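pipeline/complex-builder :: batch 7 item 3
reading input block
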Amino acid sequence: MSKIIELKNIYKTFDDKEVITDLNLEIDENEFVTLLGPSGCGKTTVLRMIGGFEDPDSGEIILNGETINEIPPYYRPINTVFQRYALFPHLNVFDNIAYGLKNYNRVFEEIRSNVRKSYDQEKKEIRDKLNNKETSLEEKKELKHRLKEIKAAIKEKTSIEKEKLYEEKLADIESRYDKLDEKLEAKIEALEKDEERVAIAEEKLEALEEKIANLKAEVSKRKDKQKIDQKYKKEKEKLERIAYGYDVDELYKLRKQYYKQRKDEEKSAKNLMMSPHHIEQAVNDILKMVNLEGYGTRKVDKLSGGEMQRVAIARALVNKPKILLLDEPLAALDLKLRQNMQYELKEMQKESKITFIYVTHDQEEALTMSDKIVVFDHGVIQQIGTPESIYNEPNNRFVANFIGESNIIRSIYKGNKKVEIFGSVFDCLDENFEVDEVVDVVIRPEDFDIVEIEDAKIIGVVDSIIFKGVFFEICAMVQGQELIIHKYEQFEVGDKIGLSVDPYEIHIMKVDPNEKI
Amino acid sequence: MKRFRMLALPYSVWMVILVVFPLLIMVALAFLDIQGLDFSTATFTFSNFKATFDKTYFEVFLRSMGYAFITTIICIVIGYPIAYIISKLKPTVSFIVLLLFILPMWTNMLLRIQSLNMLLLPEGFMKNVFGISINLSGSTFSVILAMVVVYLPFMIFPIYSVLEKQDPLLIEASQDLGASEFKTFRKVTLPLSLKGVASGVIMVFLPAATSFTIPEIMSRGKLVLIGTIIEQKFKSGSNYGTGSLMSLFLIAFIFIAIFISNKLDKEGATLI
C-alpha cells in the first residue's frame, strides 16, 4: 500500500486557542481510517483542513506527493459527506447527485495536478527563501518573478496536455460511433432490402385478422370478444411491426439518438467533462449502489433521514474522489439504521476502493468499521493503530478509558515479566519497564476470572450488580478501588468474590508524568 | 384556544369599518351616477365603465406600469448586491448598516420627497453649496430617482432576510463538489434567494405602480400616472363613481399580480 495523504507538522489556532498541535499523520490508499475523540478534540478541524475549508497555520498537507495547502476545495479531488447532509433544497435527488459531475472537472484537475507536481519542490524552496529574513529585496523580486513564470508555465503545459487528451478523446468517440453507425447502417440496409420479409408478414397479418374475425363471430359476449383480442394481441403486434416497417423506423430513431449522443460527447470532450448521458448513467448506477433506484426525480425535502444520508453519500461518491471525508454522518440516525449503515459504509469503501476518512466520537462505530483508528485528544494524536491494537494495548489512560470500559490500577513492575497488583504478584507479558517502576495496569471488565476465594489473588466485595442482557455488570470494591467486572454468573450485593487474571489479559502502561491524581 | 377568539374582535371590527365597508361603498359607487356623495339623487348606471375604459386612461395605466417596472428593475440591481453584502457582514456591523436603511423610513415620506426635489432644483442646494447648477427637477429621471430612494429598502429587506437564513453549509457543499465561488453563487445562493426577490418585487412594484405623491411632487404636476388620475377623480369631488371603479380595477390587478407571483414562488427557484 502506498500513502495517499500526509499531514506534516500541522498547527492550527482559533482565537488564540491551539486546537491542533504538531500533527503528523499518514494515510494509505484504500484505507478506512477513523479519527476518534471527544467533541472539541480537533478531529473535525483536521477533516476540514484536508477538505480545504480550513488553512493550517503552519505545516503541510501532501496529497499524492503534492503540497495542496494553497489549492481551494473546489479543485481538490476530495469530497465530503456532511453531518447535516447539506443537500441542495432547490434540486431533486438526481441533480443533487449530478452536481459534482457537472461542476468538478476530474480529468482536467488530474492533468493540472500532475503538471503542478513537477514544480512543487521549486515552489517550496522559493517560498522558504521568501520567508527567510536574510533574503535581500532584489532577490525577493527575482524569486517572485520566478513564481509568476512557474504559474504561467503550469498553465501552458496544462493546456497542451489538455489539447492532447482532447484529440485522443475525439478519436475515441469517432471510432466508437463510426463502428456503431456502420452496424446500424448494415442492419437497416439488410432490413430494407428484404422485401420478401415484409410481404410474408403482410400475408400472415391478413390471415391472422381473418382468423380473429372468424373466432369473434362465433362468440356473442363482448367479454369473450375482448378475450380473443387479448390472446392474439402480441402476435398481431409482432407482425404489424414488420409489415408496417416499424422496426426500420426504430433503427432510424436509434441512429438519431446515437448522433445526438455523439455531438454531446464531442462538446463535453472539449472541456474534458462528462457528457449528459454519461452523467445520467453514473447517477443511476450510484443510486442503485445506495439502494435508491428510481428516486431521481424526488424532492430532497420529501426524503427520510436515512434516505437523505444515502443521497449525501451518493453525491460525494459519484465523483470518484481520491479521498472521501465523512463528518459524523450517522449521528442523526436512530440506532438500528446507524448499525445497518455502518456495515453498508464499510462495504461501499471496499467496493469503491476509495480512501475513507471518518470522523466520530462513537468508539463502537470506530471499532466496527475502521482499518485504522487515530485517537485524538486536545488536538494531539494519542494513538494510531488497528481496532484490535487500540483496544488491547492502549497507549495511555485516556485511550484506555475512551475505548471501551477498563479498570486502570496503579501497580508496581517487579521485573522479569512480573507485576504487583493490589499487593499480589501476577505474571504478565510486558517488558521494557524498570524494576520497581510505578505503572498503570489495564484490565478489561470481561477479562477477570472468578475463582475460589482460597485460590484468589484478589478478593473483592460486590458493591452492586446490574443485569445488562447478555451479562451482569458487577462493581466490586478491592482495597478501596472499584473494579468493573462483566460475568454471566449472578451474585448478591455483599458477596465476597475471588478474582484472577491471565497473563495475556494484563496490559501495562507507563504512568503519564503530567497526570494529576 | 377558543377562549382567545374574542381577542380578535376589536381587529375584526376595525377591518369591517375601515376596509370591508369602504370597499362595499366603492363597489356601489361604481354603478351609480352620483354627485359627490349625495345618495338621494343617485341613479344606477354603467356610464362609469365607459369613462374608465377610455383610451387615454389605458395609456396612463401602461405608463404607470412602465415606471413601476423600471423602478423595480433598478431596485433589484442596486438592492440585491447591498442585501448580499449586508448578509455577509458580522452581525453587529450588519445591524448598523440595516439601521442606516431603516432610519430614513421613520421620517415622513412627503418630507423626504420634497427635500429630494429641492436638491434637484436649479437654484437649490447644489448651487448654493457646491456651485453646481443642475436642472433635473420635474424630469422623468427625478421621478424614478425618488421612487428608487423611497422603495429601495423594501427590496433590500426581504432579500437580506432570505440570504441571512441560508445554510452556510450549502456553500461549502457546493465548493466541495467542484463549484468555484462564482459558480456557487450562481447555482446555489442565487436560486435559493429568488423567494426574497419575488417578495421584494411585490413590495416595490405595487406601491410604485399606484403612487401619486411621488410623480406629483417630483414632476411638478407634469407626469400623470394612474394614482394621480384616481386622486383627481376623488379630489375634484365630481366623479366618485369613475374613481371607485378605477380603484377596484387596480385592486383586482394587484391581487392577480400577487397571485401569480405566489404561484411562481411555489414552483421554487427553478423558474428564473
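note: Chain B has one domain: 47-264.
queue -> next item
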